[in-house]
Design a protein that fits this description.
- The protein is about 0% helix and about 50% strand.
- The strands form four sheets. Strands 1, 13, 16, 17, 18, 21, 22 and 23 form an eight-stranded antiparallel sheet that branches. Strands 2, 12, 14, 15, 19 and 20 form a six-stranded mixed sheet that branches. Strands 3, 4, 7, 8, 10 and 11 form a six-stranded antiparallel sheet that branches.
- The N terminus is likely disordered.
- It contains one helix and 23 strands.
Amino acid sequence: MRAFALAIALAAGAHAALPIGRVARLSMGYSARTLPKSALTPRHVAAGGPPLAIDPVQMDGADALLTLTNRRQRPIHGRLTGGRAALAVTLKAGQAQTVRLIAAGWKAHPGVSTVAAPVTFRGRVGDTPWNGTKTLEFLRPVIPMSEREAPTVEMLFAASPTFELNRPDQVSGRRAWTPRNLSARVQLLHDETGLAIHFDVRDDIQRQTRAGRDIRQEDSVEVGIQAGAGNSARVLVFGYALTPHGPVAVRYRGAGAPGMVDARRVGDHTVYDVRIGWPDLAPLTGAVGERFRMDFAAIDSDGPGPPARIALTPDMDTPSCWLTWTLE
């Protein structure tokens, strides 16, 4: 598992006191396997078979580790490309070398546990031109449903940075406030399929009797995302709650689906695990270098009167005040 950052820059209008951090990328530890039907297919083959062997080692986040072996007694020079990555290759006679294709960007399709990774080499063996292509396959372990319980979720998020919502300047809607009746720890991960957000909300009294969009009037959490810029900017706001009938996910703003949520009460804490797929966050794709704005909040209502809200930025309702995040 390799951590990869979701770095944050302060957006216009945000305050310098706001937390700055990163979000780890979740990788399920892809192993490597070569597709039997797609062995190295060179365009120019010297006698004795392909001069360059390309074997997968591991997919690490968006990167791929490959082993290159020169099968000839002449040096090999050229360029290896795969996905969005490329690197120069120089191998002495008989030399084997492990290389990293940085940010190749191969992605698994939802529900598919493998990634097909085509690579191409263009160069020379000694003074003879040689080109070849090969499709590699990386396998992703599948977690049995019986293991997808709270301890597994907690372990996955254990290494990710934490954002604390526990300061008076983050609170609105209530005069009397203490961290005991409303505070939250928020952690984020993302991978090739989407964005995962883990809320651990401290709330001495759990109250949620509403339905639909009215859940934001009582105990719940919210996520706001602005993708794109200018006239093409798309603002999405989703809400999640633990009701007497189970966890619910609601769309407050935008046309995207709110994803899935698992929620549970643990002592005086309510824990939410939210998962939103990249297709529902379009134009975001999860690609390295993408930038977008995001904010999140926890809401608490213990009775009559407006609920209290604690949020990462001072104005959860104004996307221009949200922090800017960059996928790295």
